[in-house]
């Protein structure tokens, strides 16, 4: 089997079932090893690569994921479009547990140092004004609506480093700022995909209400058990969404503005 793919999926181990005739391969990158073996297979006749973000056995906490190696590995296989489902907490009462959010903006509240491929000597400034792919986002929203599932078109995710959850004070601040969801992995993943001129689409599952909304007395506190339980309950829906999306995704020869993210970005 040719070790190439055009579409990448970054998610939990429950997505292994998506691929037909999957082959696991081990890759090394200039940034070290990715989270785990990458599975190559097909969905609806399209060549797809699946990478478990936290490792096959969920052994990597969010702050220990080698995001650069993950994105580099997918790019080296020929992947140009990524679908990346995540579990998130809600920061707004109208965004309910079990809802889906197709994210279009992020706020970075992490302190990581490994967030770029461009550490010199050529200084490169890549725009992340619109970090998520509008084409993939549109396909995701229409697919979710077609399936009759609750979806919010667009939303700002504030990304915290983890592994701890937010304090009530932090979460109340996020809510007052009008941000919609909170998560520990979307950054730097989406920004690194942008630096590789790849399309990136996030589909978020609301697994809980964050601590600020809990402090208002309306909902129960978050726990890891509740997060995992809600995400698992929605896994079947996510699999169906991705299976339905993939035949609609433009082919590798179709252009996208994401592919031009590096145009004029380098100072030479």
Gyration radius, in Å: 18 Å
Helical residues, percent: 25-40%
The number of helical runs is 6
Mean pLDDT across all residues, rounded? 92
C-alpha end-to-end distance: 40 Å
Can you summarize this structure?
With 268 residues, the chain is an alpha/beta fold. Helices cover 26% and strands 25% of the residues.
Chart the SSEs and their pairings.
Layout: E1 7-11, E2 20-25, E3 38-43, E4 46-52, H1 67-76, E5 81-90, E6 100-102, E7 105-109, E8 123-124, H2 134-146, E9 151-153, E10 156-160, H3 168-176, E11 181-183, H4 186-195, E12 199-209, H5 211-215, H6 224-245, E13 266-267
Parallel strand pairs: 1-4, 1-5, 5-12, 6-9, 7-10, 10-11
Antiparallel strand pairs: 2-3, 3-4, 5-11, 6-12, 8-13
Helix pairs in contact: 2-6
Describe the 3D structure:
The protein is an alpha/beta fold and 268 residues long. It has a single domain, classed as Nucleoside phosphorylase domain (Rossmann fold, 3-Layer(aba) Sandwich), CATH 3.40.50. Helices cover 26% and strands 25% of the residues. Strands 1, 2, 3, 4, 5, 6, 7, 9, 10, 11 and 12 form an eleven-stranded mixed sheet that branches. A two-stranded antiparallel sheet has the order 8-13. Strand 10, helix 3 and strand 11 (181-183) form a beta-alpha-beta unit. Helix 2 packs across helix 6. The longest helix is centred in the last third of the chain and has 22 residues, at 224-245. It is globular.
């Amino acid at each position: 089997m040719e070790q190439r793919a055009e579409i990448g999926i970054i998610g939990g181990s429950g997505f292994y079932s998506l691929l037909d005739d999957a082959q696991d391969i081990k890759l090394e990158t200039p940034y070290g090893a990715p989270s785990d073996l990458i599975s190559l297979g097909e969905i609806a006749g399209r060549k797809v690569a699946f990478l478990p973000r936290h490792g096959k056995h969920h052994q990597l906490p969010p702050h220990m994921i080698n995001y650069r190696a993950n994105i580099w590995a997918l790019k080296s296989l020929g992947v140009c479009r990524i679908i990346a489902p995540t579990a998130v907490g809600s920061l707004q009462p109208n965004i309910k547990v079990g809802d889906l959010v197709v994210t279009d903006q992020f706020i970075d509240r992490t302190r990581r140092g490994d967030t770029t491929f461009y550490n010199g000597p050529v200084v490169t400034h890549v725009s992340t004004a619109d970090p998520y792919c509008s084409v993939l986002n549109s396909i995701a929203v229409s697919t979710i609506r077609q399936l009759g599932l609750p979806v919010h078109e667009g939303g700002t995710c504030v990304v915290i480093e983890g592994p701890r959850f937010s304090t009530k004070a932090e979460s109340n601040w996020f809510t007052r700022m009008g941000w919609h969801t909170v998560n520990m992995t979307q950054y730097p993943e989406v920004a690194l995909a942008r630096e590789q001129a790849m399309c990136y689409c996030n589909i978020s599952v609301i697994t809980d209400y964050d601590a600020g909304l809990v402090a208002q007395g309306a909902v129960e506190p978050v726990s890891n058990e509740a997060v995992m339980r809600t995400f698992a309950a929605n896994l079947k829906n996510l699999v169906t969404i991705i299976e339905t999306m993939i035949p609609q995704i433009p082919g590798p020869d179709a252009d996208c503005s994401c592919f031009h993210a590096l145009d004029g970005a380098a100072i030479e």
